[in-house]
């Protein structure tokens, strides 16, 4: 490995071969380390800004745009389909190689005319030798008395000059070929003609063919005042030389055949450029398809007419929806919700649409949109735009300056984002993704659980259905620590993962067993799981609590044996009960007295989502079970406690993550389930890493945001990067964090060109004199270039590049979809 992160393949995978001495090519695009201009002009397909004085509603085209453009942006076909992961559909520009709006480079423009001027001069000098054919544009350079008039119509002027005519034609052909080869004429033809669609391309080719024919056969075009190019006469002279005279030209058929051959030779290049034959075959195939009976030509219908419903025979429902769309009574959320219901195969689809029209299957909250949008969303593709891919050497052509977007297809493989405080993780990534998932929840296609960091809630309160404010007395909801579980072993495994999953000194399996030995007997007696304060007393071995529970289970032999086993292990070396009790003490503080079943409450099954209510406390908080997101498209936000309870906040984050892994395994769920952790510090454990790998097959995903990889145990760095499919490195990370990304993204083979200059030592006296004169004039010795092209293995992004070359407001992002498609790590501008 070299110091720049490359490995030389010379002698192993590649054989260095001397190449022509040409300078190495440099990428014409902006390198990844150079930030793009802050102001990006609008592109074709982007939603227009709202007109002044007109009401507007949020929509897929961007915040504040008119309602009509909202539905149009969703219903109309995009300019280009999402062909690659992470490419924003609306406003997507084709790669530069396929665009026709580019301007030719100044060097290319000069290359169009300089060879032409040189050709005119050479032709003029050639003609000064007395050769017999006229070319009107060259009369500026040649006296008129040097020109001999003559065409095939007057062969008397050509007799005896056949050889000179042939030489004239050969020189003209070589001159034209050299002009086209040395100049930029092929680039100009591809730029102005080759990239245009039919039939414009065929018409341009036809126009060029007519212009060329007017120079070859000027007498066939009325009003043309120039002389013929030396094409026809040299060919006829060559035939006359071979045949020994002009007697063959007396035959009109022979003469016309030669004229036909010349015409075909002139037109043939323009036919290739214009694509006449493929265009003709396409038109003939379309005519045959239209002429065949019973196969009418397909008619493209706009999405506003709901063609998928009409194809299935649901014409009445399609008419109702089309009328609502036309009248502006449906927004993009309504359209996506109805489309999702149709794709889900609702048995009462027709009756519900005829009865409720665009308001069918409204979210249980009654909301049909968010009160405020800050991002740009495409609910048809389940995407949210986060920025723009930066065109660079590493980026494929399809990603150059295209919009960067995240959707459920990539979030289903989970995403890990690492960046220091102030790098913009929350503002540019977490908040837009949370808003997009909340919108998709209104369509019935997604369930969202967002865990906010202390003091910075994600989104407005009106954008969520359930808000759990841990430690806030005004909170309406409480969090069920057992996630509505009925099985004591399952509840114990979830709670053990949250309490001691990050400890190396306690075995998670033994901790789950110790909890199950207490949860089972308590549930058998009370019909519910114990509140966390009561559970802490049992784990600490409080004699009064254990005696009361043992007396209550005296008639149940199985539960009595479970409790006796726990009593025997209490206080023994290696007992996990003490560590579990110490961790529960973090949640048994006065600030959390009314939460987690405290204050004499109930942690059992009941209330919202199957959690327990608290009849003893007057229902101060309604317990919420995270299991509800597995059955309903809910929008849930959990606000961590304020400053002073950092360790408790991390424990709650681990609890939510462990519960999420458990509840998404429920069968029968058709919607996508997403968990967003604004601060995943201390939440990643060995058990959670194993469960993250299974989420993509369970139609679920997690977004993890970290300030540094050091917040994760070092033994879990590799498994964590391997468990997630999407990885994002923000600007400002350290080289230690960058090394983890560099190892995960691996290396690639690239071709490098090395140019070495060697001094030329001449042997002959004359050559040495010329070299000395050249050195005296230029000040440099005469050298020759030795070019070596080789393949080297280079890191896609080295740790140093990630730490020092990612500009502020940018990030390096790699994506993987649930179908296995992937995008390499590319630089994305998050400022737009």
Q: Explain this structure to me?
A:
The longest helix is centred in the N-terminal third of the chain and has 23 residues, at 252-274. The protein starts with 5 loop residues before the first strand and ends with a strand. The strands form three sheets. Strands 3, 4, 5, 6, 7, 8, 11, 12, 13, 14, 17 and 18 form a twelve-stranded mixed β-sheet that branches. Strands 1, 2, 15 and 16 form a four-stranded antiparallel β-sheet that branches. Strands 9-10 form a two-stranded parallel ribbon. The chain contains 26 helices and 18 strands. With 832 residues, it is an alpha/beta fold.
Q: What's the topology here?
A:
Blueprint: E1 6-8, E2 17-19, H1 67-75, H2 106-127, H3 162-182, H4 185-194, H5 200-216, H6 232-243, H7 252-274, H8 276-291, H9 307-311, H10 315-327, H11 332-343, H12 349-356, E3 376-378, E4 383-389, E5 403-407, H13 408-411, E6 415-418, H14 425-442, E7 446-452, E8 466-469, E9 477-479, H15 488-500, H16 508-526, H17 532-539, H18 543-552, H19 557-569, H20 577-587, E10 622-624, E11 635-639, H21 646-663, E12 672-677, H22 686-695, E13 700-706, H23 717-723, E14 726-730, H24 735-745, E15 747-759, H25 765-778, E16 783-795, H26 799-804, E17 810-816, E18 822-829
Parallel strand pairs: 6-13, 6-14, 7-11, 7-12, 8-11, 9-10, 12-13
Antiparallel strand pairs: 1-16, 2-16, 3-4, 4-5, 4-18, 14-17, 15-16, 17-18
